[in-house]
């Protein structure tokens, strides 16, 4: 289904909430201040997120595109196309939610105002399927998107993968496992099409399952330990080989694409040391990498999607995508 935002009416719902924390936990760019807010909250961001960051005529949406099927379920994506850019580069967005929750519904649409197409994916959550099902799904989506580039109107030669939190982990893992038969899978109709990506943007994702719990705060332990065990089907201690396969850090080699990481120094859910570890692996392999430390930011808070950080992402992507190599 194709939907042009210029055809939409704006519906504003008013609701009483003591705080925005619960409503905004999984939404990129939402404010998560825990202080009380005035009695009525306009949930415009939740209900019509594209209209927050873009004008109504700036893009078109193609909703619920089926990219593959698994028993009992169709796997779908939403595609956002900028109206002002012909043949844009494509960013594939992977949502967060500790691998067990979240959806494709609210990606960061600021990339579209910068002239990029954006595909936001749903994938099987850990409550439905264990690792590496999530990676198989994402790679199948990339194959679909590359095979159908001419149909939808974006470029297929260089694709970017990006994501936040658990989605950042999956984006990084997909990015550093181009052409890896162990994680490719065989879902969808385009198994002979490449699932390779040419750049990675990781927002505060875990990178090393073997070290993250030792680095974590008590709060982080309470969140991350059970989430990883649900993803793997075992605790990390009982499944070290699978935990290694699931860790982007341990998959890095000299052929991996350029990587940009954003991480807050006050993140108590995913320690910033996780990003430092991945940066170190990249540097040991002589690869292009940049870690942008967002000072004062925690996990899933507003600053990551403010203009100053969006400009850093745009500069990085411009350098990578316009490089002829």
Question: How would you characterize the overall build of this protein?
Answer:
Strands 1-4-5-7-6-8-9-10-11 form a nine-stranded mixed β-sheet, with helices on both faces. It has a single domain, classed as Alpha/Beta hydrolase fold, catalytic domain (Rossmann fold, 3-Layer(aba) Sandwich), CATH 3.40.50. With 325 residues, the protein is an alpha/beta fold. Strand 4 (59-70) and strand 5 form a beta hairpin. It is 31% helix and 19% strand. The protein is globular, with a radius of gyration of 19 Å.
Provide keyphrases for this structure:
alpha/beta; globular; two-stranded antiparallel sheet; 9-stranded mixed β-sheet; 13 helices; 325 residues; disordered N terminus; Rossmann fold
How many separate structural domains? 1
Radius of gyration, rounded? 19 Å
Helicity range of the residues?
A: 25-40%
Give the CATH architecture. Answer: 3-Layer(aba) Sandwich
Topology summary:
Elements: E1 2-4, E2 14-15, H1 21-24, E3 41-42, H2 44-47, H3 50-53, E4 59-70, E5 73-82, E6 90-94, H4 110-113, E7 117-121, H5 133-147, H6 149-152, E8 159-164, H7 166-175, H8 181-184, E9 199-203, H9 212-215, H10 218-232, H11 240-245, E10 259-264, H12 273-284, E11 289-294, H13 307-321
Parallel strand pairs: 6-7, 6-8, 8-9, 9-10, 10-11
Antiparallel strand pairs: 1-4, 2-3, 4-5, 5-7
Gist of the model:
The protein is α/β, with parallel strands linked by helices.
